[in-house]
Amino acid sequence: MEMREIEAFLEVARELHFGRAAARLGVSTPRVSQAVRALERRVGGPLFERTSRRVRLTPLGERLRAELRPAYERMERALGEARRDAGAEVLRVGIATSLPGEAVDGPIRAFERTRPHCAVVRSAHPNTDPMRWGGDWPVDVFVGWLAVDHALIQAMGFDVGPAWWREERAVLVAAGHPLARRAAVDAEELAGYDILYPSSAPEQLADSWIPPATPGGVPLRRVPRHTSASLEEAIVLVAGGDVLHLTIAAVRPDHPHVVTVPVTGLPPMICAPVWPAGARNPMIGEFARVTGAS
């Protein structure tokens, strides 16, 4: 297999969307499609089911992803260590899958201009991943969504860089849901509906994203239905029509049966770089400084 085929396959498997995968990889959508088709010819069967409405992995694709993803991440780490041993500067940057690819390009390119000899190696991960990695981080710094008051994550042993931007809250609902036609939804109204809860993240951190109660003190009906931490799975669950996903306004799912509705009454989220306190890569501080000012 060629590396471009593996990278394209894994990115489409993560995004379940060829256009977004291409944006993540910095190549054209036809190039990603060609690479996936080449890999399908190599393995002798389809890896994705493609329709006009969605892309999803076949059972063969699921098995191949399960085998390739750990090996690919080990290889990326090995290459990064080899570059460091050779004296080259390398910064492994994880990007939350809910971040638009085009939105992160500007800050990262600003950093690359200031450090042309530092190789930036990007990878995409669900926003909950860093909190599950513990002390074995596969990246140097992760850029994702945090509560405006991020004292909790600092207490968990992380440093937080300057915010790239702030985003107001929103909720994903099925197109036929009673809230779908609303211009905005007050946070108090959310108490009447089931809301997805990211049980894979530490409870206190998950509570900072999906609060246990509305600002007025009414408990929210939080349901842990995820089998993975991916935004794509959340979108599929919402499309079923009986559950909501509380997120940020920047999330605009490419799904004909899911819409984004703004939520008022909740504090915004920030997009910011996060890394373990005491991390030794000297490029992390420079990355946080330059990208926070871009």
From TrEMBL:
SUPFAM superfamilies: Periplasmic binding protein-like II, Winged helix' DNA-binding domain. Keywords: DNA-binding, Transcription, Transcription regulation. InterPro entries: LysR_HTH_N (IPR000847), LysR_subst-bd (IPR005119), WH-like_DNA-bd_sf (IPR036388), WH_DNA-bd_sf (IPR036390). Residues 1-58 form the HTH lysR-type domain. Pfam families: HTH_1, LysR_substrate. Belongs to the LysR transcriptional regulatory family. PANTHER family: HCA OPERON TRANSCRIPTIONAL ACTIVATOR HCAR, TRANSCRIPTIONAL DUAL REGULATOR HCAR-RELATED. This is LysR family transcriptional regulator. It comes from Actinoallomurus spadix.
